[in-house]
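Reader question, answered in our methods column.
A reader sent in the components of a multi-part assembly and asked whether the whole thing could be modeled at once rather than chain by chain. We filled in our standard form and ran it. Here is what they sent:
COMPLEX SIZE: two components
ENTRIES:
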Amino acid sequence: MSSARLIYLPLGGAGEIGMNCYVYGYGPQDQERLIVVDLGVTFPDMDGTPGVDLILPDVAWLEARKTQIEAVFITHAHEDHLGAVGHLFERLGAPTVYARAFTAHLARQKLGEYGFSDKVVKTVSAWPETVKAGPFTVGFLPISHSIPESSGLVIDSPDGRIVHTGDFKLDRAPIVGEAWDPELWGAVAAHGVKALVCDSTNVFSPEPGRSESSIGGDIETLIADARGMVVATTFASNVARLKTLAEAGQRAGRSVCLMGRAMRRMIEAAVATGVLKDFPSVISPEDVGHLPRENVMLLVTGSQGERRAASAQLANGKYQGVSLKDGDLFLFSSKTIPGNERGVIRIMNQLSEMGVDVVDDNSGRYHVSGHANRPDLDQMHKLMKPQTVVPMHGEHRHLRAHTRLAAENGCQSILAVNGMIVNLSGNAPSVAGYVETGRTYLDGSVQVGALDGIVRDRLRMALNGHIMVSVILDEDNEPLGEPWCEIRGLAETGRSKAPLVDVLEEDLDQYMRRAGAKVLADDDKLEDGLKKITRQSTQDEIGKKPEVTVVISRLS
Amino acid sequence: MSSARLIYLPLGGAGEIGMNCYVYGYGPQDQERLIVVDLGVTFPDMDGTPGVDLILPDVAWLEARKTQIEAVFITHAHEDHLGAVGHLFERLGAPTVYARAFTAHLARQKLGEYGFSDKVVKTVSAWPETVKAGPFTVGFLPISHSIPESSGLVIDSPDGRIVHTGDFKLDRAPIVGEAWDPELWGAVAAHGVKALVCDSTNVFSPEPGRSESSIGGDIETLIADARGMVVATTFASNVARLKTLAEAGQRAGRSVCLMGRAMRRMIEAAVATGVLKDFPSVISPEDVGHLPRENVMLLVTGSQGERRAASAQLANGKYQGVSLKDGDLFLFSSKTIPGNERGVIRIMNQLSEMGVDVVDDNSGRYHVSGHANRPDLDQMHKLMKPQTVVPMHGEHRHLRAHTRLAAENGCQSILAVNGMIVNLSGNAPSVAGYVETGRTYLDGSVQVGALDGIVRDRLRMALNGHIMVSVILDEDNEPLGEPWCEIRGLAETGRSKAPLVDVLEEDLDQYMRRAGAKVLADDDKLEDGLKKITRQSTQDEIGKKPEVTVVISRLS
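And here is the structure of the entire assembly that came back:
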């Protein structure tokens, strides 16, 4: 099999932060046996994807090759790595999904929502246990991150060893889960690493990353000094942080209550799989009202300002019978992800109006990142001494900066973005081709392509409003009655002070009267004419060019 | 006139950053003579105001009292203080507008767009010159900010002196415009200040503010070291920064080119009114191509990622014949305003794809804020020793933190939000009532109320899609032909794999056949029934509940 090659193909996560999906293949060109690493989602926003439920990687390329897929490996249980597994599983030919216990537990829940059996997910123990997947042998190498049991992958192929870091930080005291173990990682690299496919998220952070355990003291002081109820929010999946917060509450004589489904689910998964021990006992929301405020601490979902999460509901007034008031403290033990600022600030101001003191991470004392900063990436490169660094998990600017760091460390590197097939065989990586990629929207219960125009049409209606024009013609193509307009999302009156709908109907009626038999007999011509009049008259009246839908009914 | 009172009423800017509009009144209740300080705008976004052009304060209260308005005073020329003057001038009864020269120059442009004469704006010199406006005497007190000729207002009333700070920082070397002069401000306060109405923007910034002149060195070093073309963006109105950037370019042997209408207009206004002298001579965009890249520096609009500004256009490929390439440098000499992150990051990644090196203000070396930080506010309180501090220009959380700072400094304070009438007469401020306030949208060429439902309808179409249903009935209320559907912004097929439009038309046809004569004769009942079927069938097919518009045509 001299023509066999080792390829890397990111379908999501390389050129963006989110929606991770990486493919490795080995074999003769176009017959490679494939493994998929992570199947994540990214989240929609009003700016570009209003009404969309979730954004998934476009896996059309994989779907067309589903018989070549040996397995799926999930590095950790964050939504941007695991969230699409249920939605895409069938399209990929229902491959076996491998993960460590905590991740597997949550993967089974996701697949269960689609009716798939628990058995499709296989639990794998940490390295040195490995799984054989066609030409690949894959092991889960523990590493610290902001969720339990995050793992890098050791991917052995006939052409050498790849280390796929997954998301990571170098934390020797991560509170929950395995600490960063440079000896373990160094041993894996001892006989050479062909490619280090490496997290790039924090490449612009110049200081070494801080340990999860470094913020416990400040959190404890803050909570000990609080007078009223204390509420803290962080990512539901940051089990270590939840433990730190809950224990600080407990030490301050507070009973802890978890609010928000995602948070309870994470704690349950962590307890069920044994990664979390000694979490303070919790009370139910119904019990909160029976305790003095100074004896309660709520841990709530919604650190990113999500409208339906517990934090937003509390800021709106009441959630599960609990409401906040003057003198309470609300801690954002989290960083606001770019793009979520407005939602978070809205909540902060609502809390301010209630007299609640809001503390966020501006001071840097109540949150640490889960990703490796620049000096940590540096350390990783130097420890693993790979032939090639392949930056992943970053926007283009992160990937680009990461390739430069690799060069400074004497490594080859390649800036591979979504859709680029990289040939890792031989002594230097090369671009072996490009695959059409993009995004798939979960919109209600169906998957639609980002370029299908469906969401574009929604955006246009949001920007321009929508006018429906209805005309009826008889058997002889003569107008029956007058044109009828319905207006959505536009001012009712404009320049002429008459209702816009009256102005339009008058103008359209005149157009119909003037239109020749040829136009009246031709749906396309008539529609064009009616649209043009509608847009022009609306522009004249209110200064906007609306979307227009014309319905021509012909009686026959 | 023993019943006369001195009132303060914010209509915009108190509870938000943007859209500043403050009213002061003196006289018997409901007959107060009024002055208006600032008429600003705030900017729309896709999240809540798609398609809206600008957001203005709701001045209905003022409009109903326009005969009581003595004058409008504009503290400085930022859009959030000046931007609404043209749009609202007529509704306020065309009052005289007072401003200093640079601000007045730009105010005349805004009013000119609505056809108003230059004469409606009166230019006022700096304090000690004053203007009489009914019971008030008003003077413009120079202070440093991030735009030339920013001024506080000294507002003397029969009940005492108010100092309205406007936006400010304490900068003793602001490059362009007047330096912070504590002696001048202290003298104004010497005989007592009843109320200090004070900027709150940076109350959460714990370090003293830095001078505009403190960043020149770093900017000069950065540009001197650049190899390719240099592009820098900042707020167009930050004339001092433009000067610093242009001079750094000039010293590095580069010709400077201004790109973006707003930037050229600001420089022209600054030169015309004498606030800017010695700006390096500039070249036109057409000349850029004739020079080696290393001899060019572009100063461009679009520091906030605005889609139509020069920075976004350059990132998209080409602007006015100029394109960027590998080895060029792009400096964001600016801070990203919360909510604008996505747009800015998009541009950074596009530039990264071109190989352009992007430098932003993460390091704190290439930008300083134009607002007073917490220690500066502290200094202002202590210098002015007001009876009462009234925080303004901030979200609720800023205003609240600012009242606490005032208390620490031994001042009374009152947290006044938009719509709250504060009685400043007597020894302590009190709430004298509430006025309905809100936001007015400039939508195309018309002004609509934020609560009119127009933009809400657009948001609903963006989230849910839109289906139009058309049915025709004859003289006997019998359906003529079959129902017709048009779908916008929804998936074309769903669960049953048949086109959604076919499924709907079939379901609606069955409904029409089943419907009794009573329903068919009643537009409301028929519309309700058709909507319900449409929503239910769409939900079943694609999992979304669309907006539905029904057109019932009856032949008669």
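What stands out: The mean pLDDT of chain A is 96. The radius of gyration of chain A is 28 Å.
Send us your own complexes using the same form.
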